[in-house]
Amino acid sequence: MLQLRRLIWFIVTRLLLVCILCGMLVCGFYMCLNTANIYVVLSDGLQRRAEVILTREDAETLNFYFHADFLSSDPALEGAFDGSSVYDNYVITDFEYDLSIEKLWAWPWDSYATCTVVERIPSITASIVSSRRSENLPARPTWQGGRYDITLVKQNGEWKINGMQQRTVLMEAEEDEAAAGAS
Predict the structure, then answer these.
(1) Cα separation of 160 and 21, whole Å?
(2) What is the pLDDT along the chain (183 residues), one digit of tens a residue?
(3) Which residues are CB-neighbours of 44 under 8 A, at least 6 positions away?
(4) Structural domains of the chain, with CATH
C-alpha cells in the first residue's frame, strides 16, 4: 500500500509540474502575441497620425489604429483640418519619423494595455505653398515631439489606441533652411 501511495504521489507531482509549465508557456505566448500586435499598432499608427497632421491626407486610415473616441478629441488632428495647424502654409514632401517604445505591458487576460513612447520627427522637407510665397512667412516650424503615456484597448480582437497623454515636450533643433529643403 505504501508503494502505491508513493507511485500516485510521484505521478501527481510530475503532472502538476507539467501543467504549471504548460500554463506558463501559454501565458508567455499570449503576452508576446499581444506585445507584437501593440508594437505594430503603435509604430504604424503614430507614424500615420504624424503624416496626417503634416500633410492632411488619408485621414480615414487612422481608423485602423485609433479608437473613434480618441480621433474625435485629438487636438493635433483637429488643428490639421480646421486650418489652425502651423503646417498649413507648407507643402510637406517628406519627413523622418522616429518612435522609441520605452515601456510596454499587456497581460494576456486584459483587454487594455499601457505604454510609454518617445516620438520625434528630426527633419521635415517642406516648401511654402505657392499662393503664399510672396508673404513674409516665418521659418518652417519644427515638430513638437514628446514622451507620451498611451493606453490601448482590445476590441473584436484588434488593438487600438484609446488615449495619449503627453508627459514631456521635446522640440527639435532648428535646421538650416537649405538642408530642410524649404524654398
Answers:
(1) 31
(2) 889 999 999 999 999 999 999 999 999 999 999 999 999 999 999 999 999 999 888 889 999 999 999 999 988 888 888 878 888 888 888 899 999 999 998 888 889 999 999 999 998 888 887 776 667 666 677 888 899 999 999 989 899 999 999 999 887 765 544 444 444
(3) 65
(4) 2-180 (3.10.450.50)
Q: Residue 91 carries which side chain, given as an amino acid letter?
A: V
Task: Report the relative pairing of strands 158-171 and 144-155 from DSSP bridges.
Answer: antiparallel
The secondary element (H helix, E strand) that includes residue 77 is helix 75-82
What's the CA gap between 52 and 46, in Å, rounded? 10
Query: Exposed e or buried b for every residue in 62-86, given b needs 16+ CB within 10 A?
Result: beebbbeebbeebeebeebeeeebe
* CA-to-CA dists, residue 168 to 25, 106, 118, 160, angstroms: 37, 23, 9, 23
pTM to 2 decimals? 0.81
